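User: Hello, can you help with two protein structures?

Assistant: Certainly.
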Amino acid sequence: MPALGSEVRAVRSLKQVLSIGGSDSSGGAGIQGDIKSMHANGVFGMTVVTSITAQNSRRVRAVYDLPLDIIKEQTAAIFEDFDVSAVKTGMLSSKEIVELVAQSLRAYRAKNVVVDPVMISKSGVELLRADAVDTIKTKLFPLARLVTPNAHEAQRLVQDKVRNLEEAKNAARAIQNMGCQAVLIKGGHLIEERGCDLLFDGKVFTPLYGEFIDTPNTHGTGCTYASAIAAHLAKGSDLESAVRSAKAYTTEAIRNALAVGHGHGPTHHFYFLGDAR
């Protein structure tokens, strides 16, 4: 008989999802926010860190891009050992990093790739260099099952205004023509139909109406949303279902946002656990 207390419990294996992007020292966005969102949506999150940021709820103080060889080795370490069911990319600040990540995802035949084309921080700091924008379009988008720009990012990608659903449709069509399977334009408060996002799968436009919650504490919302989508795709949901589930989760994370720091507080990834005080 086994010794008392030595029983081994059979633990259900979780789907494994990889986040590739920058580190947020404040914990609300970047890979820290991604991992929280992934775990909250029922998958095991892993990371490849591309850049380290020194930031808080008010500003980004500094950004340091990691050497390409350590980014490459992190990626190899994950794919040689884990069954990666989905990948979410975030901050890829330089043309060289974008090229390396795209090359790696292609080499490892990554599936369910969700590209969040992070371009600017909440405080207005550029997180994507100008010469990397075209590289994201040509090298990374063709590998994506879904690209998730907000309205500002969509405008920069297509060099045109995105102020309402009709303009969002034009932008979504143009971005999908860059090679990705589908596009989700996140409207938030930036388009006339506040709280409405637009999903385009190459054939059908699906407006996703939702509640607009007026709060300054939205740090990491895009990371939270895209990571939740990746989690649901990893678990086998179809694209529209994955997006709807992620939108519902993100809405509640915003509703229960945390007023920590003195600027834009983060979404509450584990709001469903209740008040732990």
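That covers the first. Now for the second protein you mentioned:
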Amino acid sequence: MMHIVRPHWAALAFACAVISAPVHGQATYPSKPVRWVIPFPPGGGTDVISRTLAQKLTELWGQQVIADNRPGSGGTIGLAAAAKLPADGYNIVLGQLANVAIAPALYPKLPYDAVRDFTPVTLALTSPLILVVHPSVPAKNVKELIALARAKPDAITFGSPGNGTTGHLATEIIKGTGKVRMVHIPYKGAVPAFTGLLGGEIAVYMSSIQPALPMLKAGRVRALGVTSAKRIATLPEIPTIAETGLPGYEVTNWYGVMAPAGVPKDVLGKLHADLVKVMKQPDVQQRFAAEGGDATPNTPEQFAVFIRNEIAKWGKAVRESGAKVD
């Protein structure tokens, strides 16, 4: 006698539905841990910003966002590593002015294209620099510094954390715009450069805000101006460089979230929306303020335009300065 095996129609229908359903996985993004590449060592500004946002996303998603420090070569090693990772939304990186906008002009053979190889997600933080001088310098503002430099070409020295750094090029823009000659003294990092200023080895230094604050309060250095378009809340008495000698001058250090090129649009939308959400949280804004900056989220499209403009601006600064990699 022949036995006919009848299918379990409910199970068969479910199996067919699973087979025919589109395999996107984006509806539940993220459904597994996310890697956050940090192109600098632990402890610096890039690391602090990255870990702050990574922790907030972990809390929001219920999925671990894992910090992955890949330091070296001014942040280019980490960015190059991130460019090669899968473009599935599970790999993101914090780019910044140095390795996104300055590096393309500074390094002759950069292992990535800052525009082609990445999907911009959002700008995260912007922070100005501050131009400070040794107390022995008689100039009280940028206009007076320019006049002093014109009267004594090559007599004034300015320091930086190294050739091609933001501080170096921000000062080179002052030189070029003001049509003056000052001698550049590169140091191996921000701490030795500031120490050189305090010791009188150099006369002028373009500093990040945070390290300059205690020295300003102690009277060990004098501020001539901040590099932002507007005065900053933490130092409202310090004018902008544009106000006091160079109209239109603006230099802003920045950090932005990026992903390997080709991230699906729905994943990009989810990632962007959640990053904006956490950046609006008061404790995140306070943490960013402690780094001397402001949370400044924008759209992926706006960030893409911003990156292109910054590459053009800083490429010109690098060429005019003659800066080369140490």
